[in-house]
Design a protein that fits this description.
The protein has 12 helices and 35 strands. By secondary structure, the protein is of the alpha+beta class. The chain is elongated and about 145 Å long.
Length: 670
């Protein structure tokens, strides 16, 4: 062998001996002597105290995910007992994490650049304490204890049979979760079972579920499985799907099922203002990601039930400043109108109790007294369209095809427009509620067109054969913190006109108390008589509706109504003056009085007073001051040449006193 060959052989042999010596030294080295150095480096990188109280041992294993020559550099794996990781000075507990045993691998090459990279960290019987203060400080964001150049990176976390506690002052959460391993799979297939209990926003929380055993904290493409059932107060949530990049919650994709006694119960959970409703359940796909102002989320193609009604739609949530935005569409193919009663606090006492409504509806009141929750209106903006295609309702409520767009902006709610199909016609209204004022200020404009007379009163005897259309306008302003207060303080006008048609003779005879004709009609049958005109005009001031005009004029009779309706006190005080135009067999011809509370109104007859024969002249005189205002409602019907148009036109002319009329006749006779 040449001299050079011998030198190379001896050098290689020496290197092997040195490496063997080093390996032997590493295998036999007491790694407990490195605990102070490890604790110091971790403390410098994180700014937290780190301590290994028990034994520390070392093993070697092949690297995971490395390529090229790096795949030949083995990773050391340390196992330590009685390990603790400290909390910041402001935290309630001294330790953020404790574990009976901790094993973790270290990538050695990054150490050369003063970077501690832990590819995987396994905790046996861990105890984690997570805390966040009202000012936003939290103990899971690591800082640095000084100007150390060392950096810390944790890529994977494995938790088995442990406990996690979360105290969050911002979310008002105090939760405790127990974690245990399910099955005997390897690290990649390990699954965790968990149970949680505690409080969230003052509501009791309980739940259980399963999750991926390896919590990927670094790889954005890793899908972390979630299967959970949680109950918060009166709300239950079932979620099944995946989470990408759990450290940042980069993307969430779940099949989400939600059930509660009212949609308003979701506000403490999601911070989104939803209306009071009957008990509901919905299921759909929730996907999106959080961001600085709540992120972007979509509850896509959800379907479910609200009371007896069905629901479907898609909602989008976009976080932003000064407020986030909720927009989308919701529809119902089968809408039970009673299911809308909680929107205005008009549901039953049992329903109110179930959804936790504060206060009780007085037994002697009809108008809902439940207060609006305006403190929530400024938390979000909204633009949501709702459509109710088929409406199931009581027979006396002839409505269908509800469409509205709900706008919420800067604490102001508007339904613009709110459309109904009603009695064969349509009703369009614009309603605005300003929640920034105390009390709430409200405005309403309403227009009803082409409502069929026989459909408007489907349960009233004698109306089914009646013909004619009703047109109506209303404009109101009000202030108050409930429906009852709004109506009790309202001011404005309500007008309506029936342009043409027919009406039941029996119905008019009953209103005129013509007993003989009623008997004859009952014996020989009812018939329809021509309706010349019906016009109503109420002026409303501070919750009191006063008749300016209320007249029904037919070929056989004229009916005039006078009086007021007190919405604040819920009292009726109306007088009906019937006047027949022909000879009647027996006629009491006395006014009818409708009085008393809305809850139990009374209808009576003053038998000691004979009705004055006011006739059409009285009706027209009452209409004169407001006839011009009612004529526009005639124009949307059969035209100005209708009987109603003619009647209203005559009412605008200055009436002639009886003496003046006689003088005019005598003069013409000469």
């Amino acid at each position: 062998m040449s001299r050079a060959g011998k030198i190379a052989l001896y050098s290689a042999g020496g290197l092997i001996v040195v490496l063997a010596f080093c390996v032997a030294a590493l295998l036999n080295f007491d790694w407990n002597r490195t605990k102070p150095w490890i604790s110091s480096r971790v403390a410098e990188a994180t700014g937290r105290a780190f301590n290994i109280g028990g034994n520390l041992s070392l093993t070697w294993h092949a690297p995971q995910g490395e390529q090229g020559w790096r795949a030949w550099v083995p990773w050391p794996r340390l196992a330590a007992r009685d390990v603790s990781f400290g909390n910041p000075d402001w935290a309630e507990k001294p330790f953020m994490a404790k574990a009976r045993e901790v094993s973790f691998s270290i990538s050695p090459l990054p150490l050369l650049s003063k970077k501690i990279v832990i590819p995987s960290l396994a905790l046996s019987t861990p105890e984690l304490s997570l805390e966040r203060l009202q000012d936003g400080r939290n103990n899971w964001t690591f800082g640095s204890g000084g100007k150390s150049e060392w950096q810390f990176e944790l890529q994977r976390l494995i938790l088995t049979k442990g406990e996690v506690q979360l105290k969050d002052a911002i979310k008002h959460a105090n939760l405790k979760a127990e974690i245990d391993t399910l099955g005997n799979g390897n690290d990649e297939n390990l699954r965790l079972g968990w149970r949680v209990a505690g409080t969230y926003n003052g509501e009791e929380v309980s739940g259980q579920g399963r999750a991926g055993g390896i919590l990927s904290l670094q790889q954005k493409n890793t899908q972390y499985p979630i299967d959970a059932t949680v109950r918060v107060g009166k709300t239950s949530i079932d979620a099944k799907g995946s989470l990408t990049d759990p450290r940042r919650v980069a993307a969430l994709d779940l099949q989400l099922k939600i059930a509660s006694v009212s949609m308003a119960q979701l506000y403490p959970l999601i911070g989104v203002v939803l209306p009071e409703t009957r008990p509901f359940v919905t299921e759909g796909r929730l996907h999106g990601s959080p961001g600085q102002h709540g992120g972007n989320w979509t509850y896509e193609k959800f379907s479910g039930k609200m009371g007896a009604s069905d629901l479907a739609g898609t909602l989008h949530y976009r976080g932003g400043e000064p407020r986030s935005l909720l927009e989308g569409t919701v529809s119902s193919d089968f809408l039970n109108f009673n299911d809308l009663s909680p929107l205005i606090g008009a549901d039953s006492e049992a329903s109110r109790t179930r959804r936790g409504a504060k206060g009780e509806q007085p037994p002697d009141k009809v108008l809902p007294v439940e207060n609006f929750r305006t403190e929530r209106w400024n938390s979000i903006d909204a633009n949501v369209q709702f459509t109710g295609r088929r409406i199931v309702r009581k027979e006396e409520l002839p409505i269908d095809n509800l469409v509205t767009r709900v706008h919420l902006r800067d604490g102001v709610i508007s339904l613009a427009p709110l459309k109904f199909g009603i009695a064969g016609g349509n009703l369009v209204s614009n309603i605005t509620l300003n929640g920034k004022t105390k009390p709430v200020k409200a405005e309403m404009k309403l227009s009803a067109r082409h409502m069929k007379l026989n459909q408007l009163f489907p349960t009233l005897e004698g109306m089914q054969a009646s013909l004619g259309e009703i047109n109506s306008d209303a404009a109101l302003t009000a202030s108050g913190n409930s429906i009852a207060e709004l109506l009790g303080s309202s001011s404005g006008e309500i007008k309506a006109v029936i342009n043409q048609g027919t009406i039941s003779k029996l119905l008019l005879e009953k209103m005129g108390l013509n007993i003989g004709s009623v008997i004859v009609t009952q014996m020989f049958g009812d018939k329809q008589i021509q309706l010349n005109c019906a016009a109503t005009d109420f002026i409303i001031s501070k919750g009191v509706m006063q008749t300016r005009a209320f007249v029904v004029d037919t070929a056989d009779a004229t009916i005039h109504v006078d009086g007021k309706v007190n919405l604040a006190k819920e009292l009726l005080d109306l007088t009906i003056y019937p006047d027949t135009k022909g000879l009647r067999m027996i006629s009491l011809r006395s006014p009818l009085y409708v009085s008393g509370p809305f809850k139990k109104p009374k209808v009576g007859v003053d038998k000691g007073v004979v009705a004055l024969k006011a006739g059409s002249a009285l009706a027209l005189a009452a209409l004169a001051p407001v006839a011009a205002a009612l004529i526009p409602l005639v124009n949307v019907g059969p035209g100005e040449k209708s009987e109603c148009g003619t009647l209203l036109a005559q009412a605008t002319e200055k009436p002639i006193a009886p003496t003046a009329a006689r003088k005019a006749t005598n003069t013409s006779g000469k």
